[in-house]
Amino acid sequence: MHGVAAARGVRDTSRAGRYHNRRFLAIADELGLDHSEEPHPSSGFSLVGLRPDTKKRYRATIDRLHRALKAHTVATTADTARSFRGPAARHGSSGGGVRVKAVCDCGRNVRVVPSVLAQAPIMCGACGQAFRIPEVVGAGVG
Ligand SMILES: [Zn+2]
């Protein structure tokens, strides 16, 4: 859906991607999706679903996607260290795994492999507290 919009250079959302506008709705219609008549106050027309005839037409594709998703989930949940991809993960890989920044409340920070930190806390010698990996924010939804 958003892929179609992106390919055409159409802005199908507003309010930082939260509100799904009428251009989004037009693409939904074109792809054979059902939608509510009135927009949701904050997310707009994001609640779209397959029309019964559309579902029938894409049954084989949907089944294939489900199988692929299942395989993907199995493959990615097997290795949690690999699925962790913070902003710092793109740089500084040195063999033993991707290191990310871990911080302490006193302001010090170190670079650690998440799986190593998960094994046991790494203590800060200055204040005695454990280093922790800050939560990654700003992952878009929709
Ligand atoms: Zn400290």
Explain how this protein is built.
The protein has about 140 residues and is α+β, with helices and mostly antiparallel strands. Among the domains are: about 1-50, no CATH class; about 90-135, no CATH class. Helices cover about 35% and strands about 15% of the residues. It is built from 6 helices and 6 strands; from the N terminus they run H-E-E-H-E-E-H-H-H-E-E-H. It has helices at about 1-10, 20-30, 50-55, 60-75, 80-85, 115-120, and strands at about 15, 20, 35, 50, 100-105, 110. A two-stranded antiparallel ribbon has the order 1-2. The longest helix is centred in the middle third of the chain and has 19 residues, at about 60-75. The mean pLDDT is about 75. The structure holds zinc ion. The site of zinc ion (ZN) has 7 residues, from loops.
